[in-house]
Amino acid sequence: MFQKLTQFSCSTDPVIQGDKPGYRAFDEGYKRDVFVKWPASIPMAQRTKPGKAPMDKSVIYGKMWPPGPAAFVDFFRNASRQYWIDMHKEFHGLLPFDAIWIDMNEPANFGSEYLHCPKMHDHIALTLRKLQSLLNNNVIAPSNFPLHSKPKL
After folding, report:
1. Averaged over 84-102, what is the pLDDT?
2. Are strands 70-72 and 15-17 parallel, antiparallel or unpaired?
3. Which residue has the higher pLDDT, 62 or 141?
4. 136/42 Cα distance (integer angstroms)
5. How large is the average pLDDT for residues 105-120?
């Protein structure tokens, strides 16, 4: 009876640690090119280089729950939605959860050690506001997972 009444909810964050070699979620996202990038207008010399995280694709790194620099999934890219679905399906195969709580889906950066270019402030703020709007309206939620409200596409 207990099993029939119990459901397991998994909490995930839409940021991926970027300086841990062999971390599949980052490696796959990096390969698929799904992370938020520095705009071309910001010279390389003004971009932060966070530790061991790769920079050849101009990924922007911030700081959230992962202990190292975190890459933000860019849900404006077409490949990102499929990446997000694939990673959750793979995780579900390892740990069969009943629901997902996407924590920290609001635009957030817990420190300035990685994002401290003054020219980036307006660009990042606008990008994060757009991302927040999409997340709040469930526009980018995987269609094969139950939602509290259906996406309006």
Report:
1. 89
2. antiparallel
3. 62
4. 29
5. 57
**pLDDT attached to residue 134:** 59
Strands 70-72 and 9-12: unpaired
Query: 22 versus 126: which is more confidently predicted?
Result: 22
Token pair listed for 51: 């530790």
φ, ψ dihedrals at 101, nearest 5° = -110, 110
DSSP-derived secondary structure for 73-113: B-TTSHHHHHHHHHHHHHHHHHS--SEEEETT-S---S-SS
Largest CA distance in the chain: 61
Determine the pLDDT at residue 24.
Answer: 94
Helix, strand, or coil (residue 44): helix
- pLDDT for 107 equals 58
Q: Cβ of 17: how many Cβ atoms within 10 Å?
A: 19
Q: Which sequence positions are flagged as catalytic?
A: 103, 106
